[in-house]
Task: inverse folding
């Protein structure tokens, strides 16, 4: 029996690269693959706008290896390099309701579309094209923390050691709502930075996804092949949208360790964390250290570009913006 035909839908980010790399390892196109469990037909990635204010057009990326960025030994190959090495076509796409995109996906006669780090809602007409459907990697234990940035909210709520995890689920018309194909808990260590958290979730998710695809292929002759991978999500759960500026505020009622983990895990170049003392707002840069045993005689102590902040338990040391 031929392995299932798969399309990949992702973005130009490390999370997607890790998942795509795992799919390449499973594909029948991979040279030396002992037991190929999928046929990876193509990758779909967001394209660049042609003109300001216009949507990018659907087009195949035709750059060859000598036109791609040079390989960096300190970094894994990106999606373009991985695809070029295996002659897997890449299509740069615009809006998902583009009729030409529908025709393209139809032409591949795919069984499954695997999604990683793609935060747009998939239209119903596309969801019905693959034989089995769309499989998405979501970095939380659904139904908890539905939405486009679950890791931010997990870190903000301070539950990374108990509520962290990854879910492989079938996509439907609602956000992160479809049946669960696989799920794994994941304890996120204290003090880990955001890029490390993403890599941890991507590697865990790609392994889970690989297992689901392998199981689906091995059981494809069974009429219950998909049914066994369709576990309804438990009742409850909640949806969180993109974080806003005020969501980066530190709460002094937290333990210092929670504040430290939150700053380390959600630091971005465009939105700093901050803390409020009365009418004064102090903009923070980096979380430097945490001391859970000491206690300050006052709410904070500042010296130069560093500050020590007293939380309900423990002290956070951080650098501040001048």
Result:
């Amino acid at each position: 029996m031929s392995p299932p035909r798969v399309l990949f839908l992702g973005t130009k980010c490390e999370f997607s690269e890790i998942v795509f790399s795992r799919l390449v390892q499973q594909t029948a196109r991979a040279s030396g693959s002992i037991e190929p469990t999928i046929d990876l037909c193509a990758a779909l990635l967001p394209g660049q706008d042609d003109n300001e204010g216009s949507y990018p057009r659907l087009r195949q990326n035709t750059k060859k290896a000598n036109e791609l960025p040079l390989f960096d030994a300190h970094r894994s190959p990106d999606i373009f390099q991985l695809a070029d090495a295996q002659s897997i076509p890449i299509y740069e796409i615009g809006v998902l309701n583009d009729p030409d995109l529908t025709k393209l996906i139809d032409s591949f006669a795919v069984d499954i579309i695997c999604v990683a780090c793609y935060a747009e809602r998939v239209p119903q007409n596309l969801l019905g094209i693959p034989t089995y459907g769309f499989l998405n990697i979501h970095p939380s234990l659904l139904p908890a923390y539905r939405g486009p940035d679950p890791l931010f909210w997990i870190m903000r709520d301070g539950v990374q050691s108990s509520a962290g995890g990854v879910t492989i689920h079938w996509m439907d018309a609602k956000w992160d709502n479809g049946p669960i194909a696989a799920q794994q808990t994941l304890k996120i260590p204290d003090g880990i930075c955001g890029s490390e958290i993403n890599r941890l979730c991507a590697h865990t998710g790609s392994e889970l996804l690989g297992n689901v695809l392998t199981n689906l292929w091995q059981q494809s002759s069974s009429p219950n092949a998909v049914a066994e991978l369709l576990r309804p999500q438990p009742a409850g759960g909640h949806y969180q949208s993109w974080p806003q500026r005020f969501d980066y505020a530190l709460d002094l009622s937290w333990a210092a360790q929670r504040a430290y983990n939150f700053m380390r895990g959600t630091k971005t170049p465009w939105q700093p964390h901050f803390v409020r003392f009365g009418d004064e707002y102090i903009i923070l840069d980096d979380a430097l250290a945490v001391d859970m045993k000491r206690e300050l005689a006052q709410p904070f102590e500042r010296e130069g570009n560093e500050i020590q902040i007293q939380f309900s338990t423990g002290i956070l040391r951080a650098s501040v913006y001048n």
About this structure: Residues 5-229 form a domain with the Rossmann fold fold (CATH 3.40.50.170). DSSP finds seven helices and 13 strands in the chain. The chain has a mean pLDDT of 88. The chain has two domains: 5-229, 245-320.
